[in-house]
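Lab notebook, design round three. We kept the backbone fixed and only want residue identities now. Task for the bench partner: fill in a sequence for the structure below.
Input structure tokens:
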């Protein structure tokens, strides 16, 4: 979440309009934007379940970014949408309604490879993969790379890995 937040703030400082979409049920990106208690808002969960349009849940933050907040309800999204046809494209379709309004859309994903992450990868043009310098991260990268290849094959052939971002380092 902190990388997504920093990226959005950097883009704003360069004069860009930015929409941030939090698809992580921990809602850390939403908290970083200072909206208070994310569970008090409609957001990504309602968009993915068809209960709201993304334009109806976007919050304008004090930083200048717009935010589609997350909530704990996203933790059940895999189960709730398990039988839904085209469930991988829900975020992609939702973002089409507002795509002309922003220069950039920054999507914060959970650390797990569930439906929220698949939706983010299907909707994205580029993916930046944060990694730590340890064995567990390397194992996770292998799995994520396999998932990205499946998404590219089945949902988003134009998805590009923009790079790996080393974080939480100790100089």
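Proposed sequence:
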């Amino acid at each position: 979440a902190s990388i997504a937040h920093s990226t959005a703030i950097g883009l704003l400082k360069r004069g860009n309009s930015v929409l941030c979409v939090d698809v992580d049920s921990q809602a850390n990106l939403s908290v970083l934007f200072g909206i208070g208690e994310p569970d008090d808002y409609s957001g990504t969960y309602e968009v993915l379940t068809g209960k709201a349009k993304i334009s109806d849940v976007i919050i304008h933050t004090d930083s200048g970014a717009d935010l589609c907040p997350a909530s704990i309800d996203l933790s059940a999204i895999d189960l709730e949408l398990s039988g839904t046809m085209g469930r991988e494209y829900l975020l992609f379709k939702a973002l089409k309604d507002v795509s002309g309004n922003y220069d950039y859309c920054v999507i914060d994903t959970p650390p797990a490879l569930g439906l929220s992450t698949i939706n983010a990868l299907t909707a994205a043009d580029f993916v930046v993969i944060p990694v730590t310098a340890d064995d567990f991260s390397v194992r996770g990268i292998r799995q994520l790379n396999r998932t990205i290849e499946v998404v590219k094959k089945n949902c988003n052939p134009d998805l590009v890995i923009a790079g790996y971002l080393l974080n939480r380092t100790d100089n």
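Keep this in mind before ordering anything: The mean pLDDT is 94.
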